[in-house]
Write a structure and sequence with these properties.
The complex is a heterodimer of chains A (337) and B (245).
Chain A lengths: L1 H23 L6 H16 L1 H4 L2 H27 L6 H15 L5 H23 L4 H27 L4 E2 L5 H24 L1 H11 L1 H6 L4 H23 L5 E2 L1 H4 L3 H13 L5 H20 L4 H15 L3 H20 L1
Antiparallel strand pairs in A: 1-2
Chain B lengths: L3 E10 L2 E11 L4 E5 L6 H8 L9 E4 L2 E2 L5 H7 L1 E3 L12 H11 L7 H14 L15 H14 L4 E5 L7 H16 L3 E5 L3 H7 L2 E6 L2 E6 L1 H6 L1 H15 L1
Parallel strand pairs in B: 3-8, 3-9, 6-7, 7-8
Antiparallel strand pairs in B: 1-2, 1-4, 4-5, 9-10
Classes of the chains: A mainly alpha (337), B alpha/beta (245).
Chain lengths: 337, 245
Amino acid sequence: MSDLMVIINMLALVYLGWFVERSLQKNKSKMWLFSGLVVVMLVILFTLPNYGPTYSYIMVTTILMYLVLTVSWALFSGPTGYISLAPAAFFGVGIYTSAVLGKDIPLLAVVLLGGILSFVLAMIVGALTLRLKGTYFIMFTFGLVLLITNLLLWYEIKFTGTRGRFVVAAGNDTIYYVMLGIFILLLITAFIIKRSKFGLALQSIGQNEEAAAHMGINVTGVKVIVFAITAFFMGMAGAIMTMKWTYIDPYSAFDLFRSFLPVLMAIFGGMRYFYGPVLGSVIFAYLEEKLLTEFPYVYKLAFGIVLIAVILYLPDGLAGLVDKIRARIARKKNALT
Amino acid sequence: MHLLEGKGVSIHFGGLAAVSDVDFYVDEGEIVGLIGPNGAGKTTLFNLISAALEPKPGEILLKGKRINGLKPYQICRLGIARTFQTVKIFGSLPAIENVRIGSLFGPLNRLSTMEATKEAIELLEFVGLSDVASAPAKDLTLSSQKRLEVARALATRPALLLLDEIMAGLNQTELLEAMELVKKIQKRGVTVVMIEHVMKAIMGICDRIIVLHHGKKIGDGTPQEVANSKTVIEVYLGEASDAGD
């Protein structure tokens, strides 16, 4: 029963992602219907703690965490082609903001501050590294996570004498609401960026950065600011999520897996579409939780197999598959008439 | 005052002087041809003017103001636009979006989205690409892609347009169309500097020709003067006609 609740809410999340993509298109037919459905979906999502068992919204919180990481990752890396492995760093900065300041200031302020600190870190890192191309950029962002982990480890052992920290816990429903709020804010931000000329600038940078620069686009400026905006959301997600975990240390806070997963989830869902990464992370995250609890020994193996299959047979991910099936149905219809 | 002026412009790649101590100027309303054998430093000079590279040493002035050390996007907004020898279009974006990017980001005074779209439509028509406005740029023919680059560059509302071999690889009809296009650009009030190997085009439409050889300027004058210059004939036209035999 509770699994059904989770699946209904997953569908609601995917719908929101699809709606953003649809609103970006020129096709405005039936928009009143789709907008009405958005309200329904939002009601379903926001009232989940009222009708669903605790397990269901804890599960959806985890899904939302991956959603925020993946969608914000894809917002920058999708159009520009700059593959960042820094999500774990920004997420971890949020976690540590919470761990250090959680006792002293209100919850929402902690979350916001976690986002702001990540934003600042991303500005600095971006200004230094976004001149790097291809592999060099990937390696640097990867190194950043390792650097922060070890720097923090050194600091904790040298000055506090302990490796980890306790985090002030928050209620499961509070965490859920805040995480949902962050995700919706992210969708709105993504919509604004994609619809504005920044979206076009990001695409042109991905297509041909040199030409973009000669067309009057401040390529470094655009890249750094969008990179930092996406880090803002990752930091907020880290700050709220850690209130569920109560104890953290540098290794668990800056887990590199959280850098790889957004990339995998986005590819799995289909990077050419806005709702692709949404679809990818919702399904991926659900499978991960399910497999982890029910088949703890084979879950990573199953993951690997699914990923290889997707990369080999579905170059445009799940969203691409949906498109293909749709096109086939449309063709059949035409053939019949 | 000249529209564009270079004083002792140089750049070295390792030990090679790609452009060395070149003085040049471009006046408003001119069509200036930039010619020279392969490796003469023509495209490098374009890169220096458009700030893809920075001259060391040397000075580049736009309307009397020094523009060295600026970034390419700043140069573009100051009024210098360019095309590329190997086309650098935004391949998966529709042709119209390619041009719209130019008009959204290039002009010093920002246009509204509506104005930018209107201008993009007008420019596509100007270069004769209205029919393929919504096709992805990578699907266009090479000659169309080159014209798309011209439209995109014009969209930034330049005072000076640098055209890098837009006529290479075109057939006879396309060549005549391209020459016509350059003339039309001049009529719009845009000054043009063009790198070209097609002698017929250069001699036919340029008001003045600058000749580079091994990074040095060896000739500068009207097409007639350049065609009669002994040095130019020796190093450039001479070689070209040898190759033709």
